[in-house]
Amino acid sequence: MSFSQSKNIGLKRFAVLTALVTFVLVCMGGLVTSHGAGMAVPDWPNSFGYNMFFFPVSKWIGGIFFEHTHRLAASLVGFLTTIMAFWLFGYKSRVLLRWVACVFMAAGVGLCLVFPAHTAENLLLALMGLAGLAAGFYWPKCEPAPKWLRVLGVAAFCAVVLQGLLGGLRVTQLNATLGIFHATLAQLFFVLVCSIALFQTDFWQRLPIHQELDRHHFRPLFTAVTALILTQLMLGATMRHQHAGLAIPDFPAAYGKLWPAAGPDSITRYNAHRTEVMAYAPITAAQVEMQMVHRVLALLIFAAVAVCAWRTWRRLGSRHWLSRFALVWLGLVLTQVFLGAATIWTGKSADIATAHVACGALCLVTGAVASIVSFRVLGAPAAQVKWAERNEVTSMLDSSSMIAK
Amino acid sequence: MKNITCTLAVSILAALLPGAHAGDVTGKITLKGTPPPEKTIDYDDTCSKLHPAVPTTRHWVVGKDNGLANVFVYISKGLEGKKFTAPTQPVELDQIGCNYNPYVFGVMVGQPVAIKNSDPLMHNIHALPKADGNSEFNFAETSAGQVNDSKWTESIKAPEVMVKMKCDVHQWMFAYAGVQDNPFFAVSDADGNFKIANVPAGTYTLTAYHLKAHGAKPGVTQEITVADSPVTANFTVEVPAPQ
């Protein structure tokens, strides 16, 4: 029995579910930052000394609610990603699962004896091992996915573990910079999980491979614009994780100008007239400049995606998958620009700012999926093919001349 | 001659003021200009039930005759090389009514700060110092009556104007501490008055710093000479012109 998507409906649905839950998690992460609640639970992996899963609901007040539910959702995504990674290995996972489960059980029981004060946590570990052992006997007997897809599954597992560690270390090490990496990795992880889900779909299977040559350079264009969006999201994450609120409170003008002054006197004036309700840090010149770069980059991205939509429409026709993707992409980027403006107009309302984060993630994923699809349906352009063929001929000639010598 | 008369008049006036002694530096901070209006804080359900009064932000607290509260006044020059023993009496920072009280306070390096929770709910205390030698800290007080008076001295070991503290559970809660390595500082009261007691004789630079008016700038300063009589040092703090 070979690996076939049609016979792995369960895995396909599971991958899509993992991607959806990941999107919810990204939104919840956005809520945490928008509410300035990232440090509301000062310990990790415990919550106020409780095991995270036993922290009483009655104590989920204020910022704790956003931070704690984010942690729980992150645990769920970690769990789903682990299952997905195992599932991609098919029947081969059975043995590995049993071994891992035995290690968990032994560790849980052993730690109970060594650290009796943490019996609840250690019993939980042992129970997880027991569940894993049971799963090891009833695991699907499907064929393993292709190696490249298994590698992606392992990468997703490693990424989710790293992401959890980054989130935890941000709290325990009191390091706001780690929050920026945490936010960026969240976006990349979302792209990875969505890609894995995409490769399971019937849509992916039906896509013609290299149906035509990429004469109009859509592959590098889509990839470059997606990279630009990622840069923009990293800039946005940096702005959000400086916890300074709005560095510029008006839009489309900036402090009433096209480009605001950012000298020391101007910054003092801006800060003096901010009546922030939340515990924001005073703004700095760098933050004002950063928001201006964010605005300019937004304009560039909008123009670039519009070019993608226009060119695919004209060159590939309206029914082509890439044209459809580009149109959806343009709609999302337009929505994102509006949400960015609304974030400023509402004085960084938590819900709007979070919607801005969520839409940013969708823009990135759409760009990434469109880029992947472009590499699937469009072959290398003729010039590249000729160049590769010429190189091949040259190297063949070189080797024959070497042999002659 | 005019200057001498003025100085004499001020000295006599200061000597006549109740509680002013040789070595005392007193004064008033007056605000010039119109500050932006304060905003109402929307408490969450838990805090609203506990504290029905509608609170506002406290960026510009102005009292009688434009006296400006929450200005940190300290000696910024003239005490270099001198060592002072920190008081053992802690400064109290109370979390009450889902807010910090006081909003601005002064503390000496090594002096304990008793961080107290008077609310029947959870708060976390997250200090965000920036000076070298000071460390960020974040801990929770989960019920009413809890007091911690060691965390501050473990973490804050260098002078800094100002150290910010906030609660991440209730995002509107924040307070500031001016930290000095000498005991000669004060925070202006609701009417803008301040008093720094027992300053040793000498010539000093006195600085008045307001978070909103001065931001990243060092504040307003004036030279004072402390001798046998009390010293009066008044400051005017201006609201920076809007852009």
| SS strand fraction of chain B | 35-45%
DSSP strand tally of chain B:
17
Sheet of most strands of chain B: 5 strands, mixed
What is the overall silhouette of chain A? flat
What structural category arises from helix and sheet content of chain A? mainly alpha
> What is the number of helical segments of chain B per DSSP (H or I, 4+ residues)?
4
The greatest inter-chain interface is formed by: A-B, 41 and 44 residues
Order of helical and strand elements of chain B? HEHEEEEEEEEHEEEEEHEEE
| Mean residue pLDDT of chain B | 91
Structural class of chain B: mainly beta
- The gyration radius over C-alpha positions of chain B equals 19 Å
Walk me through what this model shows.
The complex is a heterodimer of chains A (405) and B (243). The model of chain A has no long low-confidence stretch (mean pLDDT 91). Chain A is mostly helical and 405 residues long. Chain A has 13 helices and 2 strands, in the order αααααααβαααααβα. In chain A, strands 1-2 form a two-stranded parallel sheet. With 243 residues, chain B is mainly β. Chain B has helices at 2-16, 45-50, 151-155, 211-214; strands at 25-32, 72-77, 91-96, 99-101, 104-108, 113-117, 123-128, 137-141, 147-148, 160-166, 174-180, 185-187, 193-196, 202-209, 220-226, 231-232, 235-238. A 5-stranded mixed β-sheet of chain B has the order 5-11-10-7-8. In chain B, strands 1, 13, 16 and 17 form a 4-stranded mixed β-sheet that branches. In chain B, strands 12-2-14-15 form a 4-stranded antiparallel β-sheet. The radius of gyration of chain B is 19 Å and the shape is globular. The model of chain B is unreliable at 10-18 (pLDDT under 50). Classes of the chains: A mainly alpha (405), B mainly beta (243). The interface between A and B is large, with 41 and 44 residues.
